[in-house]
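TASK: fixed-backbone design
INPUT:
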């Protein structure tokens, strides 16, 4: 095993045991949203969105609002958009999925790799969203790309793990190759439902709070998490084949 990876094998793991890095992530997202909703003026919050949300048109068109952004905004926006949410409902939905899929991934990767993997998921979601909406001026925000990447990563070891494994043992389950994952019935059905649902959402433009759903970011994040999980996985390759 790599030196920094120290898996824990509790004999009787508690029923409710969320990794600290997942709780810290949720707390950070909630704190940011609380500040935006309760402590910032409308103008100040607009400035936050302009400077930290992903605005595809800012990469493609000479728009005055985009020119007023800090010089580094184009570099950090593909990551910082994931820290902003449109409503408490939006944040709550992402929190539920973050707990469900972030827990097994965080246990397996450890805190440092979990953070890097999550940032990569944000970038993957932002990339596909931009590719499909290069001239869109509306800001794209939310951790959905990150959550989707965690789903994709979980497909490589957790969803296809034997049902009798404990939550702690799932973190050490063999990592499947991409081909093996797509040959696993549970993973294949989950992936097909995920893509079909998001494509359907995109086709009807469904969304809450007067905003559309960034389904492209969901697909981009999932694809990156699914395909690139092996680059972040600290479990030795020899332990992935039995």
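OUTPUT:
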């Amino acid at each position: 095993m790599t030196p920094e990876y120290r898996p824990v094998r509790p004999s009787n793991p508690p029923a409710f045991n969320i990794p600290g890095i997942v709780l810290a992530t949720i707390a950070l997202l909630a704190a940011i949203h609380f500040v935006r909703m309760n402590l910032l003026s409308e103008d100040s919050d607009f400035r936050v969105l302009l400077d930290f949300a992903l605005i595809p048109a800012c990469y493609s068109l000479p728009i005055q609002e985009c020119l007023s952004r800090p010089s580094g905004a184009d570099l950090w926006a593909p990551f910082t958009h994931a820290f902003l949410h449109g409503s408490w409902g939006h944040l709550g939905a992402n929190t539920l999925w973050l707990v469900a899929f972030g827990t097994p991934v965080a246990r397996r990767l450890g805190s440092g790799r979990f953070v890097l993997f999550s940032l990569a998921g944000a970038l993957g979601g932002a990339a596909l969203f931009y590719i499909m909406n290069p001239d869109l001026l509306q800001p794209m925000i939310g951790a959905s790309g990150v959550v989707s990447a965690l789903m994709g990563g979980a497909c490589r070891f957790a969803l296809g793990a034997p049902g009798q494994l404990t939550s702690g043992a799932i973190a050490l389950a063999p990592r499947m190759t991409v081909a093996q994952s797509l040959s696993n019935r549970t993973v294949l059905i989950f992936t097909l439902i995920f893509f079909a649902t998001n494509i359907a959402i995109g086709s009807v433009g469904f969304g809450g709070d007067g905003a559309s759903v960034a389904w492209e970011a969901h697909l981009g994040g999932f694809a990156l998490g699914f395909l690139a999980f092996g680059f972040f996985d600290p479990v030795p390759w020899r332990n992935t084949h039995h």
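COMMENT: Residues 149 and 206 are 22 Å apart (CA to CA).
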